[in-house]
Amino acid sequence: MSSASSLPIEALKTDFLAQLNQHHLVVEAATGSGKSTHLPVWAASLGKVLVVQPRRIACEALASYVSQQLAAAGKAYRVGYAIRFHSTVEQHTDIAFVTPGIALRWLAEGKLADYAVMIIDEFHERRWDSDLLLALVKPLALRIVVTSATLQGDRLAAYLPAKVLQAQGREFPVEVSYLAREAHHLPDNQNMLEAVKAALNIAMAKDQGDILVFLPGRGEIQRCLDSLSKLDAQVLALHASISAEQRQTILDSSNEPRPRRVILATNVAETSLTIPRISAVIDSGLERRTQQRAGRTVLSLARISRASAEQRRGRAGRVQAGHCYRLWGEFAPLENTTPPQMQREELLEPMLFAASCGKALASLTFLEALPDKSLQLAKARLQTMQALVGEDSLSEHGKRLLKLPIDSYFSHLVELVSSANEKAAMLDLAAALSINQRLLSKPSGEHALKQLSHWQPLHCDMTMLLDLLRGRAWPEELDVNQQALTQAQELAEQLRAVMAQDDLAEAQPYDRDKLLGCLIEKAPELVYVRREKRPQAMANGHTEIELGRDSLLADEQAAALVFDIYSLPGRGHKQLKNIGLCMAPLSFTLLQAKQVGELVATGELDSEGRQCMQRVYAGRVIATEQHRASPEQCRQALVQQLLTKQLPDFQELNVAEDIAAWNLWVSLGEKHGGGEGQPLEVEAWLLERLQELGVEQVDDMSLLEPQDLQFAGIPSWLRADFEARYPRLLVLADLKLDIEYLSRTKQVIAHYHSGGRKAGPKRWELPAWSGWRVYYKKASKRVALT
């Protein structure tokens, strides 16, 4: 390409081509070296090249830039890109820029056979999909090039194995200023917008070019945009959700006169993209980062690593000398590198994609061993979803989950619904929940809430989202994010195209109860009920959530189907705060009809053999039902009534006392033949005896006599003497004792039962118990009696 000689990566060209013929390569090249644009073109001399870029924006931008440069140089290589829902890659494309997700899908579908070289760019970001892709393609007959600006390549080279090539970046001098008051102050979101404004005032006065501001996420970018309306510059946002036109405006490298710009960006601008005319970077030192807590992946605000800080600093030195303003102290204790994604997230998606390629995730080798607990949790969830066959292959249901390029659990819910109209509704809802933006903000005023209630009388978040997505007019009191709504509608159309559903505009009415009923039956874990003592909390028996602030769920609605949960770190190191984001109210009547929960017996059997049962779910009674008891349930209930002496004809029966005396008699070796044997359980003996007597319903008890249930234990002529020598209850002066015998150790323990005597019993007041050690125990205090 025409500008090749001006880029530092050009120094590696001869060595790169010579080594690539024989080895995998790890290319360490600093920011601005030209590795992302030149290595693919050089590698194309070996055949088709697949370039894996971690972000969609970079795929499109790099494909466009490389194509333009090749055309200008008169080279005939054809360049394309493939991202979710859009691809320009054709059969004769020579260089394809794709996201890791696309590369994994192509690998599972056997579409990588035509490629001679795979370049995994920006590997230092350590995304799970890039790590998994590298682990899966290592054994293939494919030349692999891994590039990174900050990752030390020796360990990676040993892992592949590969040769290491190094190139210095073309970086102009960048002066660094730390703006925190104290040298050890860490990046902080307290007063972050004020700190950004102060840094902007300095940069606007000191530097001449455009200014790039790194902020943690879209929310902070929007708040910063709103607060900079009077700034004497064009303020633009750069994140994954902006339109192609907005992105093209930001990346336009023409020399046409234009106003000075301030670009507010997430870490999408940290690598790969060259934003022209940047002379200053303002770095908040913060990012939105996932981590695993209490078995769930949570998105939290985190401080960047030193490696990321260097990447961000380098943005100011790409095209001219620059300045980097860091909103923390020079000696702040930042971690050196960001932990790999597979070490801090759930492994459900990696396990699903590994199985789609015929591999068990646990059998693959990674740079760092995967956490055992994370592997177990992912396997358990996929088995619950019935997505796996063994550990290394997908079920038919599991294969369908990968058909939709959204979160696999949302795909799972779509696939659970069989009826066409309800499946289309679930598909649209999945689109609304997949855009990672708030679609609306619930109003707070009484009048506005009343208008919203008129519009959504069911107080159902699911219904509201589907109404918005399908174009139903909403009251002006509801604050709807039109950009997010448009994005959700576009995603819904794309998902429908993948599944060959009707166009969104032609969506058919759905039966709400039918949809919810299907999900209750097939995904019961989505059902939550309110805590009776803490009504803001809901639970499903495994997880507790709080209601999201924008949820329509009314206070009197005690149950809901919860489609999505957003997890936040709690106060403690291992605590978790789960927020329910999309809730559809359910009646206890519907839950009872779908047999949600467990039946717990309460009370006696009536004369017709029916028993009062409570249907309990997540600790809450949702229904009381009368059920005809089975023979087993009938006998169990009768045993309890016998033991509590509730059956008038059997109140004189003393089975429990007789069996207790028998167990002691046997344990002391007084039974003929000696030996302790196994102690009898009173309930088990009664159950077995009732079954022997053919008792199957309450009426059968009228055919029995008390002697039918008499336990033939210690012979009657020995019982009185034995009870005198080894009593189980002693009544002394103002003191009652329960006596416990430990025959193996020859100990007698007299437990305080009741009485006003302060002192314990005297030894002479007790039976002889020759050869036994005797103790008195009251509360936790135990003393020997001599």
TrEMBL record:
Residues 199-365 form the Helicase C-terminal domain. GO terms for molecular function: helicase activity. CDD domains: DEXHc_RHA-like, SF2_C_RHA. InterPro entries: DEAD/DEAH_box_helicase_dom, Helicase-assoc_dom, Helicase_ATP-bd, Helicase_C-like, P-loop_NTPase. SMART domains: DEXDc, HA2, HELICc. Gene3D superfamilies: 1.20.120.1080, P-loop containing nucleotide triphosphate hydrolases (3.40.50.300). Keywords: ATP-binding, Helicase, Hydrolase, Nucleotide-binding. Residues 16-169 form the Helicase ATP-binding domain. This is DEAD/DEAH box helicase. It comes from Agarivorans gilvus.
